[in-house]
Amino acid sequence: MSLTEKPGLRPYLPEDAQIAAAIFIAAIEQLTEDDYSEAQQEAWASVADDDAKFAARLASQLTLIATLGGAPVGFASLKGADHIDMLYVHPDFTRRGVATSLIDALEKLAGARGAQALTVDASDNAAEFFTRRGYVATQRNTVTINGEWLANTSMKKTLADSAAPGADQ
After folding, report:
1. 117-123 and 83-89 as β-strands: parallel, antiparallel, unpaired?
2. For every one of its 169 residues, what pLDDT tens digit does the chain have, with 9 covering 90 and above?
3. Under 8 Å CB-to-CB from 67, ≥6 apart: which residues?
4. Residue (of 7, 160, 124) closest to 76 by Cα position
5. How many alpha carbons lie under 13 Å from residue 77 in its C-beta half-sphere?
6. Is 160 buried (19+), middle (13-18) or exposed (0-12) by CB count in 10 A?
7. What's the domain range around 59?
8. CB atoms < 10 A from the CB of 5, how many?
9. Position 16 in a domain
10. What distance in Å separates the CA atoms of residue 28 and residue 169, rounded to the nearest whole number?
11. Does residue 138 lie within any of the structural domains?
């Protein structure tokens, strides 16, 4: 696969649960060390320890899988019509347009679902990515996962053309 290959996107399938969990864990372990302690990373990654619960979370949302060369390299999920719940890219495939492709697609899908804006609770290492995409910080948060406190930032982006196609006719 070339470095310029555009990621493919497809809907999440039940058989993707294990690879999505592996991407989730690898991204936390390798991409968040500057922002979170080892104990915080372990607590965060433990969310994927319960295979069935993690798979059910992905299946209950509009989840997209990003692929390069046909292999899953990242995923993102939209909770309801207007909240980005998860965005994770395998560390070996960052800076290749994977996260951008996933969020572009979620923004379009949210707009088609009638969302006026999208929100996300961005981890400290993801906040800059969302800022570059026009998301604005609205609130600083602390969440507890398995006894560890983790900080994140609630962010919001108004969707420019949020009307569903044909809605104004």
Report:
1. parallel
2. 455 688 999 999 999 999 999 999 999 999 999 999 999 999 999 999 999 999 999 999 999 999 999 999 999 999 999 999 999 999 999 999 999 999 999 999 999 999 999 999 999 999 999 999 999 999 999 999 999 999 999 999 999 754 444 444 3
3. 7, 8, 9, 10, 73
4. 7
5. 19
6. exposed
7. 8-115
8. 12
9. yes
10. 45
11. no
